[in-house]
Design a protein that fits this description.
The structure holds two protein chains of two kinds. Chain A is α+β, with helices and mostly antiparallel strands. Chain A has a single domain, classed as Alpha-Beta Plaits, CATH 3.30.70.20. Helices cover 24% and strands 16% of the residues of chain A. Chain A is built from eight helices and nine strands. Chain A has a three-stranded mixed beta sheet. The relative contact order of chain A is 0.22. Chain B is an all-alpha fold. Chain B has a single domain, classed as Formate dehydrogenase/DMSO reductase domain (Formate dehydrogenase/DMSO reductase fold, Up-down Bundle), CATH 1.20.1630.10. Chain B is flat and about 70 Å long. The chains are: A alpha+beta, B mainly alpha. Chains A and B meet through strand 2, helix 2, helix 3, strand 6 and helix 8 of A and helix 3 and helix 7 of B. The complex binds iron/sulfur cluster (2 copies).
């Protein structure tokens, strides 16, 4: 990595430290939503909110059309605005590995981290949940910290049928992610925000990476999701 | 056709705008009470303005705590082992608590009518009071990904809005005290003019910003927030009262009160539109 390091919190390129990253090869994604399902099952993610989600957009004009997917999750940014905006240090960065995690017992629910994340990666857990005790605090993707430290890959990576999601240590030059990032043109989301994301895309389509005009005509499914979440909260 | 995205939540709901409104008024009212130790015209406001400030501070504090999803953990914000000074919220929390403590001291001082101490507490309290709109502005400014919010104008705009709304409320407290109304009219006029000038710059930079900013501009002007932002906030709540205050009618008691009522509507509408406007576009990203 020849990138300029600007902040002391960054772990990319720090010798002796791991820097986990994900590469999502969109040429291989078939939009099966297996990753969303695996993640929901792994964490009992409530209705209406996601740690990872796979939006799609149909682009082009018939007969030249294509369904373009863009799996999304927390980018475990190297310079995460969510960490700096949390007044009580409830969200923090693990130096070895670069995971951005939550101290659930510390979070006061001020939602400053949600406001500061440019990727909508964070959400509020409802007050009542059937199987999980963590309630009423902010949650997000953990890069499956508990699995990774035991030598497993994240649930979404393990389940990905197209092997579109590749996970590994970017600081290890022999890892698959390091090789892919070094040898292929990759994109990150909203690089202008200075967050230095660690989720890299191969073949990301600008119809999905940019703010689209569609915000004026949002698909009805958004309303249904909103409704589902509100019903669930009640 | 056939697009799919998931719905994302606006992290900060409209109740934050009510908090901004209430706390801004509380800060300005304290300032007017403090001014009474130094300017004779404000003397009649000393007690009434302070008591209302204290009441609004309590209401604002409750609103803020009530909006946390873990209100019981509010005290975490004072735990030195947890505090993260990179966050303006941490500074804001400390500012709010210090302002509360100084207000309580000021309350007792008022009852004992201790002039030398009153003057000192007035200065300390005013500095902390001005910190409240500044921190609420910073709270928004630091989010670099949010159009409208991410502008260095925010803290200054919130100070001006605080003065406008506070002076408007104070004009009702001032009753028929003509000398005081003259001063408050000036406060309203000049701070509203400041708000107007800042809104023009803000609209300019938002309209010519990136795609997110440009869309936010559209939401704020011709979109869902147009009525609240342009209609209530700019036209009815800023431009109309300024126009009113410069006319001969605006120099009279009823004119000042009419302008004050409009400014209060405008102050609330602007805070709401800015708060929500900065969040709409991203819910679809
Ligand atoms: S994607 Fe959002 S939540 Fe994740 S580290 Fe970056 S700023 Fe924080
Ligand atoms: S909601 Fe929780 S994690 Fe997020 S900034 Fe507030 S205290 Fe920190």
């Amino acid at each position: 990595m020849s990138e300029l390091r600007l902040s002391s919190i960054e772990t990319r390129g720090v010798p002796g430290k791991k820097r986990y990253a994900m590469v999502i090869d969109l040429r291989r994604c078939i939009g099966c939503d297996g990753c969303m399902t695996a993640c929901k099952a792994e964490y009992d993610v409530p209705l209406g909110v996601w740690r990872t989600w796979v939006p799609y957009r149909v682009v082009g004009t018939y007969p030249n059309v294509r369904k373009q997917f863009l799996p999304r999750l927390c980018n475990h940014c190297d310079d995460p605005p969510c960490v700096r905006s949390c007044p009580v240090g409830a969200t923090y960065k693990v130096e070895d590995g670069g995971f951005v995690l939550q101290h659930y017992d510390r979070c006061i629910g001020c939602k400053a981290c949600m406001a500061s994340c440019p990727y909508n990666a964070r959400f509020l857990l409802p007050k009542d949940r059937s199987y999980t005790e963590i309630t009423g605090v902010v949650d997000k993707c953990t890069f499956c910290h508990h699995r990774v430290i035991q030598g497993m890959s994240p649930a979404c990576v393990q389940t990905c049928i197209g092997r579109a999601r590749i996970f590994g240590d970017l600081n290890d030059p022999n890892s698959e992610v390091a090789r892919l990032v070094a040898t292929l043109p990759t994109q990150v989301l909203r690089p202008e925000e200075g967050t230095k994301p660690n989720v890299f895309y191969i073949g990301a389509d600008r119809n999905l990476t940019e703010h689209g005009r569609a915000v004026y005509n949002p698909p009805e499914v958004l309303e249904r999701d909103r409704q589902a979440f509100d019903n669930h909260k009640a | 056709m056939g697009d799919f995205n998931v719905f994302h939540h606006m992290p900060w709901s409209g109740s934050y705008a009510i908090y901004f409104f209430v706390i801004g008024i509380s800060a300005a009212l304290f300032f007017f009470s403090a001014l009474s130790w130094y300017r004779e015209e404000f003397k009649s406001l000393r007690a009434s303005s302070f008591y209302l400030s204290l009441l609004l501070l309590a209401v604002g504090g409750l609103l803020l705590i009530g909006d946390l999803t873990q209100p019981g953990r509010f005290l975490n914000i004072m735990n030195p082992a947890y505090l993260n000074f990179d966050s303006p919220l941490a500074w804001g929390g400390l500012n709010l608590i210090s302002f509360g403590l100084v207000s309580v001291a000021y309350f007792f001082m008022l009852r004992s009518n201790d002039e030398p101490r009153g003057r000192i507490l007035a200065v300390i309290g005013s500095l902390l009071a001005v910190g409240l709109p500044i921190y609420t502005g910073f709270d928004l400014t630091v989010h670099q990904n949010r159009p409208v919010w991410n502008s260095p104008l925010m803290p200054v705009l919130f100070v001006a809005l605080s003065l406008v709304s506070g002076a408007a409320v104070a004009s009702f407290l001032a009753g028929k005290n003509e000398q005081l109304q003259v001063m408050l009219r000036r406060f309203m006029l000049w701070s509203a003019a400041g708000v107007g000038a800042m809104l023009i710059s803000l609209l300019g930079t938002t309209a010519y910003g990136g795609v997110g900013a440009e869309q936010t501009f559209m939401f704020l002007t011709s979109g869902v927030l147009g009525g609240i932002f342009v209609g209530l906030g700019i036209l009815l709540g800023t431009a109309a009262p300024i126009a009113l205050l410069v006319t001969p009618f605006g120099h009279r008691q009823t004119g000042i009160w009419s302008a004050a009522a409009l400014l209060l509507v405008g102050g609330m509408a602007l805070r709401y539109a800015i708060l929500i406007g900065g969040q709409i576009v991203q819910t679809y990203f």
